[in-house]
Amino acid sequence: MTSSTPVPPGRPRAFDIDEALDRAVLVFWSKGFEGASLDDLTAAMGISRPSLYRAFGSKEDLFHKALERYTEGLASYFARALAAPTSGSVAAAVLHGTVEAATMPGLPAGCLGVLGALATGDESRQVRDALIAWREEGTAHLTRRFQQAVDAGDLPPSSDPHLLALYLRTIANGIAVQAASGSSRAELVQVANLALSSWPKR
Amino acid sequence: MTSSTPVPPGRPRAFDIDEALDRAVLVFWSKGFEGASLDDLTAAMGISRPSLYRAFGSKEDLFHKALERYTEGLASYFARALAAPTSGSVAAAVLHGTVEAATMPGLPAGCLGVLGALATGDESRQVRDALIAWREEGTAHLTRRFQQAVDAGDLPPSSDPHLLALYLRTIANGIAVQAASGSSRAELVQVANLALSSWPKR
DNA sequence: GCACATCCGTACCGATCGGTACCGAAGGGG
DNA sequence: CCCCTTCGGTACCGATCGGTACGGATGTGC
């Protein structure tokens, strides 16, 4: 059964193409497509620039192959979640899998599929941090507001104001990404209402 | 009362600085900080490159001023929402305001605070679209799965499989942004569980 | 009307971007 | 042993990036 490994002519490749692809996944994941320069990629992959182009075609081709590998690897929880027995267990598996994959120690935070065209390069890190602080400030405002609500008896004493604020921020962030992806206002209003249905009753 | 407008020496500015800032907001909003080139900005603002630097300092300074103006303008719904009478009405005002602001006809979709360091320039539009398609595919899978659940009696017949799928995607996107912003796994697990508490019962 | 300060825009800077021409090296097939 | 094919890296390409030097224009204060 040598047909599965028909030794190609010419000088053999001196690096493991899958291992190099794994390195590329990490770079795109943490820096995004635009933020990942060829120097970043070649340095992480341990190969030269022409080697990258021979093996993967172009930066964009490389990104698509990295996304594919990410889908079959670190994001494979999604496919497994679809096979869960009930809709509730599907939903739980999707969200818990997302949380787990987005917060893996030693790996970039977040999801390549969301941040790939979104994350930023080194040069504008200050801007990115400023925006994180901007969103953080909003969360802090909400936390204080919900603490007042607890104090006023408007929310059950068992409520966690910070959790509620973080919950709202998360929904709002998700809505922003969905809107930028083309979701309609009517759809997102329904999503918002569904998210609000789990709000604690007084 | 001329002290409030002490006519400065030198040649007066030939353009309205606030109007130019509004144009800059739209550019950063739709293309992100890195994706917005100086040519994009100067073309939209109708001023030359040195004029931009004299009036705003640098590209980064301009971004911060644009973010400030966005906060006080199109994102002012957030400050108003905090003043709503009950926590539930705060939450509803925040999410509905987010949806409305993120889907304003004639304005960029999404939120400058989320997409500012995230959106992409023209050059990688194909990559961005590919990622949108990637997330869309996931939503489609979930929709089919939940349709099966309805057919099997696992979900109430009144359930909307597409809405449930979109809801999950939105939460997952928000979780990814939060994770990239530094939220811990423990926090996000709580957020996920809260989101799951509104899942329809059989 | 003259000095001064600021604005205007053209035309340029070095750095970096993604991508490639080129040539020596390393393998298999005849 | 030679040819062919592919891989290796150096050194380069044009384009674009953010940022600025500079000289002419336009206003106020003396």
Describe what this molecule looks like in 3D.
Chains A, B: Keywords: DNA-binding, Transcription, Transcription regulation. Chains A, B: This is TetR family transcriptional regulator. Chains A, B: Residues 37-56 bind DNA. The structure is a homodimer of 202-residue chains. Chain A is mainly alpha-helical. In chain A, 66% of the residues lie in helices and 0% in strands. In chain A, helix 1 runs antiparallel to helix 2 (38-45), helix 1 (17-35) crosses helix 4 and helix 9 runs antiparallel to helix 10 (185-196). The longest helix of chain A is centred in the C-terminal third of the chain and has 27 residues, at 125-151. At the A-B interface, helix 1, helix 4, helix 6, helix 7 and helix 8 of A face helix 1, helix 4, helix 6, helix 7 and helix 8 of B. The first copy, chain A, binds a DNA duplex (30 and 30 nucleotides) through residues 7-14, 37-39, 47-51, 53-55, 58-59, 123.
